[in-house]
Automatic annotation (TrEMBL):
HAMAP family: Arg_tRNA_synth. InterPro entries: aa-tRNA-synth_I_CS, Arg-tRNA-ligase, Arg-tRNA-synth_N, Arg-tRNA-synth_N_sf, ArgRS_core, DALR_anticod-bd, Rossmann-like_a/b/a_fold, tRNAsynth_Ia_anticodon-bd. Its EC number is 6.1.1.19. GO terms for molecular function: arginine-tRNA ligase activity. Residues 467-584 form the DALR anticodon binding domain. It catalyses: tRNA(Arg) + L-arginine + ATP = L-arginyl-tRNA(Arg) + AMP + diphosphate. Belongs to the class-I aminoacyl-tRNA synthetase family. Its main location: cytoplasm. This is Arginine--tRNA ligase.
Length: 584
């Protein structure tokens, strides 16, 4: 609807230009917003106030001219001027009602697929090999996956890229340690690898304390990089074990990643030498004290000198930045990406900006290809400090999910003691995992976020359980009515204020999904679904559906509002990667 009104206003601006009411070179940013107070209509614009000066008219007078030139639309019942020159639009309730019927009839709830589908790479999750996933990976994994689902729903070609840390000098000591284990206690290798944290710690301990071991480990780094077959095999085993363990977390989290989406740092390794040589040839990179460095005027160090970004160390090794330069180039050349969305925590902002500045200066990607850092803050405990275990260690993702499921089981059992064990497990898992995901998704990702079990598992407020409950409640309305949501007939009539409010909210779904896709901000969808559920509860209180004295056609109309709400809640939660239940 917003887009529709914006299009009407854009046409009007063109008319005003051709009639020389405003200068032909004016390029106003047409903005249409939802009104807070319904007595001011449904949507409003400040266009007349913005154009008053170039038009040399007072804003209210110009508003009148704009309204006179506005193309007519069956979606708008009334247009009014308010205050200093706002233009308020009242949506036509007949049109709204028709939209509700369309939402009920359309599996996509009236959200059109994008006319120009793009190829979009989403870089997310990205844990490191031979390490267990921990709380630090939750935000990237969950928010990135919500974007993947939203973009796919809109019909884009989405490429999931799990940029795992599978390359670097640490593999020398890991391989050396694995070799010893295989020689000394072959029967224990698998169980040792099942605790990757321990395996990593012990490798490091050996490396730091035993000179000969260290020597061997450094040798393996060189061998691995030069493609030695045995070293590759050992390395492959470590990667494989890590991926298998991560997959369990992804499956539990209902995250759509699998091993085919792995595009780790090692993938770009073969490109690095050539890139360094090319950047030197282009005069962008120079030798500096034995290392290869790109000096960027855009970034100044403390002394006000251009900042040097090292792309190759004195010992010949490459850096994280070199890999990300190659990675962006690859995403253009091999994946033909129109957009790349990086879900990485905000501490890596400068790293990405530097890599991308170099990529653009070198002309590795076309200008219109969009590289976007969708940054997020840290996950904090209730005390406002980084989220840790009681003993101060890093919280493993698997432990956190265990706790979520346990807490949800206790909670669901206390609310509904009659459930069978099977039902209990299904409901509690959807609620527990949904709660963890939603708590993260519903916060503006740019800030740090406080992890609090009690808040996220509450059945009131902006939580997953609240929305899941709203959805099941509508399912029970249909069971009671004895009809199915896709067998409804007759027209939708919006006679009560609560019906109109709900319908107005329902037709906003498309605008919200578009914003999430453009800005990478699922919290907008969460806020919307929460408001939608609230509007639904108010509607259901004011407008009975299953009472005996409700006329048949009123009942059919109201059931369509119920069906449109259920469909929107479900599609919304689906794009967030949160399960809905028929019963809870
Ligand atoms: N593995 C990295 C880390 O743990 C994140 C990688 C993010 N993606 C990228 N293209 N740099 O910090």
């Amino acid at each position: 609807m917003k887009a529709h009104i914006e299009a009407l206003l854009a046409q009007t601006v063109e008319t005003l230009k051709s009639e020389q009411v405003i200068p032909a070179d004016a390029t106003p940013r047409i903005q249409v917003d939802r009104t807070r107070d319904k007595s001011h209509g449904d949507l409003a614009t400040n266009l007349a106030m913005m154009l008053a000066k170039p038009a040399k008219m007072n804003p209210r007078q110009l508003a009148e001219t704009i309204i006179a030139k506005l193309p007519s639309s069956d979606r708008v019942s009334k247009v009014e001027i308010a205050g200093p020159g706002f233009i308020n639009f009242f949506l036509d309730s007949g049109f709204l009602a028709k939209q509700i019927s369309e939402i009920v009839a359309d599996p996509r709830a009236n959200v059109p697929a994008a006319d120009n589908a793009q190829t979009i790479v989403v870089d997310y999750s990205a844990p490191n090999v031979a390490k267990e996933m921990h709380v630090g990976h939750i935000r990237s994994t969950i928010i990135g996956d919500a974007l993947v689902r939203t973009l796919e729903f809109l019909g884009h070609k989405v490429i999931r890229a799990n940029h795992i840390g599978d390359w670097g000098t640490q593999f020398g000591m890991l391989i050396a340690h694995l070799e010893e284990l295989q020689a000394e206690q072959p029967e224990a290798v698998n169980s040792e690898l099942s605790d990757l944290e321990k395996f990593y710690r012990e490798s490091k301990l050996r490396y730091d304390s035993d000179e000969a071991f260290g020597e061997k480990a450094r040798g393996y780094v060189v061998k691995l990089q030069s493609g030695d077959e045995w070293c590759r095999e050992m390395w492959q085993k470590l990667v494989q074990v890590t991926l298998e363990q991560n997959q369990k977390n992804y499956d539990r989290l209902n995250v759509s990643l699998n091993s085919s989406h792995t595009m780790g740092e090692s993938l770009y390794n073969p490109m690095l030498a050539e890139i360094v040589a090319d950047l030197k040839a282009k005069g962008l990179a120079v030798e500096d004290d034995g290392a290869v460095v790109v000096f960027l005027e855009e970034y100044k160090n403390k002394d006000g000198d251009p900042m040097g970004v090292i792309i190759q160390k004195r010992d010949g090794g490459y850096l994280y930045t070199t890999t990300d330069i190659a990675c962006a180039k690859y995403r253009h050349e091999q994946l033909h990406a129109d957009r790349v969305l990086y879900f990485i925590d905000s501490r890596q902002a400068q790293h990405l900006q530097q890599a991308w500045t170099i990529v653009r200066k070198a002309g590795y990607i076309p200008e219109q290809m969009s590289l976007e850092h969708h940054a997020f803050g840290m996950m904090l405990g209730k005390d406002g400090k980084p989220f840790k275990t009681r003993s101060g260690g890093t919280v493993k993702l698997a432990d956190l999910l265990d706790e979520a499921q346990q807490r949800a089981r206790d909670l669901v059992r206390s609310k509904n003691p009659d459930l069978t064990d099977e039902e209990l497990v299904e409901i509690a898992d959807a609620v527990g995992i949904g709660a963890v995901k939603y708590a993260d998704l519903s916060k503006n990702r740019t800030t740090d976020y406080i992890f609090d079990w009690d808040n996220m598992l509450a059945f009131e407020g902006n939580t997953a359980p609240y929305l899941q409950y709203a959805y099941t409640r509508i399912q029970s309305i249909f069971r009671k009515a004895g009809v199915s949501a896709d067998a409804l007939t007759g027209e939708v009539n919006l006679t009560e204020a609560a019906e109109e409010t709900l319908a107005n909210k329902l037709v906003q779904f498309n605008d919200i999904i578009q914003s999430v896709a453009n800005k990478g901000t699922p919290h907008l969808l969460c806020a919307y679904l929460f408001e939608l559920a609230g509007n639904f509860m108010s509607f259901y209180e004011a407008c009975p559906v299953n009472k005996d004295d409700v006329a048949a056609e009123v009942k059919q109309s109201r059931l369509q509002l119920c069906a449109a709400t259920a469909k929107t809640l479900k599609l919304g939660l689906d794009t967030l990667g949160i399960k809905t239940l028929e019963k809870m």
